[in-house]
Design a protein that fits this description.
By secondary structure, this protein is mostly helical. It has helices spanning 7-26, 31-41, 46-70, 76-101, 107-140, 153-170, 177-185, 191-217, 221-241, 247-269, 283-307, 318-321, 326-329. It is found in: Cell membrane; Membrane.
């Protein structure tokens, strides 16, 4: 027991709690935030962190999926095709990255950090794209008009395969990349159906990824236990306080954090254009990227709003854009 309760234990517990709150507030998948947080805490190698993260996700996502299933919110036909695509590739992903890395010491850790870095940048891009699509939906009048659309099997299968491969290798993608793909494939899918479907399909996805990673990398219980203990109450708290928190700032902030984390991991891995390597980073460069995004992201968002005929700032907020029927409740005619 003494080996478990350490300073590292409380660091992971705190990180899990904070990330859990953000997940509860926004509905975003935790892998995109938790995996880089654990790597930067230095609690283990990248493979060890990915394994613990997907295993924890398999535990806490199951509870959310059961809740949504009881309320009838998932589109089970859609979830079925996603699972058929995602599970085989989630099982394959860890074996593929090990084969590419080869037997050289440290090569797997470096390759995983690069893969996670690029996955975080992809997650940031897709998350920003999701906000923009919701903005266009509000202005065009497309809302929850078709909550149960006919399933398009092949594109849905391919989305599942891409998400499964990403999650199997990096633990990033189940709550970001798949969500935006569903939003683009099924624009009439309501927000509740979107979240419910994603949660239901994510359970077998992350479970398959966890099984493969555990077989290859083993499971570090000293990471998993505090991660679950911290993230579970954090997610519950985040969900409860979500209506009282200005999510516009949080959601745009996530894009900035994901971008900075992705660049920092690529830097840490020694990726050639940045190339610090050997677990070093260029903190000034990463800080400047963050400062630039703090200034630039709100400006870009404001111009996009103006393009859609909305005020540069103000209502509808980012959170309101994701609520079904916002236009109708505010008596705003479709354009």
């Amino acid at each position: 027991m003494g080996d478990l309760i350490t300073t590292t234990f409380f660091s992971i517990l705190a990180a899990g709690f904070v990330v859990g709150i953000v997940v509860g507030l926004t509905g975003m998948g935790g892998g995109a935030l938790m995996t880089p947080a654990l790597i930067f805490l230095g609690v283990g190698g990248a493979a060890t962190v990915v394994t613990a993260d997907v295993t924890a996700a398999a535990i806490y996502k199951a509870g959310g999926a059961v809740t949504h299933a009881r309320e009838g919110s998932p589109n089970l036909a859609l979830a079925k095709w996603l699972v058929l695509g995602s599970v085989p590739f989630a099982l394959l992903g860890p074996w593929l990255i090990h084969a590419v890395a080869g037997p050289e010491p440290g090569s797997l850790d470096t390759l995983l950090k690069e893969a996670i870095g690029f996955a975080l940048l992809l997650a940031a891009t897709t998350y920003a794209l999701r906000l923009y699509i919701n903005l266009r939906r509000v202005r065009s009048g497309v809302g929850d008009a078709d909550p149960n659309p006919p399933v398009r099997p092949i594109p849905t299968l391919l989305v599942g395969a891409l998400g499964g491969l990403l999650v199997g290798i990096t633990s990033v993608g189940s709550g970001s990349v798949i969500m935006i793909a569903l939003l683009m494939l099924y624009p009439g899918l309501s927000a509740v159906k979107l979240v419910g479907t994603d949660l239901v399909q994510a359970v077998p996805l992350v479970l398959a990824a966890a099984i493969s990673n555990i077989i290859l990398n083993g499971l570090d219980w000293t990471i998993l236990i505090p991660l679950v203990l911290g993230s579970t109450p954090g997610t519950i708290l985040g969900a409860r306080i979500a209506p009282k928190v200005p999510q516009s700032f949080i959601r745009r902030g996530i894009v900035i954090v994901l971008t900075m984390s992705g660049i920092a991991l690529l830097d840490k891995s020694g990726w050639a254009p940045l190339g610090a390597g050997e677990d070093q980073t260029h903190p000034v460069l990463i800080g400047l990227v963050g400062i630039a995004m703090v200034v630039v992201v709100p400006l870009i968002w404001g111009f996009l709003r103006k393009e859609q005929g909305l005020p540069f700032m103000g209502a509808p907020t980012v959170a309101e854009l994701e609520r079904p029927g916002w236009k109708r409740r505010n008596h705003e005619p479709a354009e």
